[in-house]
Write a structure and sequence with these properties.
The chain is of the alpha+beta class. Helix content is 50%, strand content 14%. The chain is extended.
Length: 117
């Protein structure tokens, strides 16, 4: 059992190095949500899987690798981003179940996630 855990740990560590390295090498700008990784683990339900994903470690490695490669790394505050129009900046309230963004001011339409990004 200890060998299996050691193997899993090695695979996770390998992934945590390769994926940020790929992103930092391929892109000129990386923006990520300013994620409270510790707060995610403390949420009730399935916290063991969230801890195993090692989000905090992944983001620290991504920032380090971007700095090394000369890639811009920006942590974006997620508050209110889904409600702002990417085209004109006007904020429009909408419930979570609405998946399409349609701006009442300029008429810009996009998928909700694409607009937030």
């Amino acid at each position: 059992m200890a060998e299996r855990h050691a193997d899993l740990k090695q695979k996770r560590w390998d992934f945590l190095h390769k994926l940020p390295n790929y992103y930092a090498h391929e892109y000129d700008l990386l923006t990520v949500e300013d994620l409270d990784a510790k707060g995610l683990v403390e949420l009730p339900g399935n916290s063991r899987n969230r801890a195993g994903a090692a989000w905090g470690t992944f983001l620290r490695m991504l920032e380090y690798k971007c700095d090394r490669e000369g890639t811009y790394f920006v942590a974006v505050n997620p508050r209110g981003r889904v409600k702002e129009c990417a085209s004109c900046g006007v904020s429009a309230d909408k419930p979570l179940w609405v998946r399409e963004h349609s701006c009442p001011a300029c008429g810009f339409e996009a998928d909700r996630d694409a607009n937030a990004a």
